[in-house]
Specification:
The protein has about 210 residues and is α+β, with helices and mostly antiparallel strands. The chain contains 6 helices and 13 strands. The longest helix has 11 residues.
């Protein structure tokens, strides 16, 4: 079955893509407006884009009328945000911050989320998140009803019990992260995995020869 995306609506394209491109990591963003109002919201159009410089990319969809939601507006105006990764223990609180609340609503307070101060930027970090990344806006790209944000990670925080600082080894499984799946609020755990060793060309070439 093939679909001509030029003949489909945005909602139809979203339904197909979001159900097929899974699992997607979740960037639980915390931002602060220029007036000092805090905001928290999760976004699953998110991933790491490089290490030189250390960049993350987040796709922020605008409202149907083209206006920005709080996260995008705050990032564009202040050029700062925190990416908090989401463990299963935070799933209910994260889901609450999906709420379609009016501007100025403090999701962190309403969800009873404890925060800690960031080191280099204004937006706070979510205390229970296993990993948090303080980011400054590197570049924003406006495409249709989407604002793509490239953020440079300027400070990387890992919970002490999850990392060996000498080896820079993070206990990924112990983080208990969840990821976004298809529609109607489905998520997945990172507990069922497989491991594949990257092939070495010379070894493959000898075996084939």
């Amino acid at each position: 079955m093939e679909f001509d995306f030029a003949a489909l609506t945005g909602a139809e394209r979203y339904k197909l893509m979001a159900a097929a491109i899974t699992p997607r990591p979740i960037a639980w963003l915390t931002t602060v407006s220029p007036e000092g109002v805090r905001n928290a919201a999760p976004y699953s159009f998110f991933n790491m884009m490089g290490a030189e410089p250390p960049l993350v990319a987040i796709g922020l969809m605008r409202r149907a009328d083209g206006s920005y939601k709080d996260s995008a507006r705050n990032i564009l105006e202040t050029r700062e945000f925190v990416v908090n990764l989401v463990s299963e223990s935070d799933a209910e609180a994260m889901n609450f911050t999906c709420i379609d609340a009016p501007p100025g609503f403090d999701e962190l307070e309403a969800a009873h989320l404890e925060t800690v101060a960031s080191t280099l930027i204004v937006p706070p970090r979510i205390a229970s998140a296993p990993v948090t990344m303080e980011c400054r806006l590197h570049q924003s790209i406006e495409v249709g009803l989407t604002t793509i944000v490239l953020g440079e990670v300027v400070k990387f925080h890992v919970r002490d019990d999850l990392v060996d600082p000498e080896r820079l080894h993070i206990d990924t499984i112990a983080m208990g992260l969840i990821a976004r799946m298809h529609g109607a609020g489905w998520y997945t755990r990172c507990t069922d995995m497989l491991q594949l060793t990257r092939p070495v060309f010379d070894d493959w070439n000898k075996a084939e020869g």
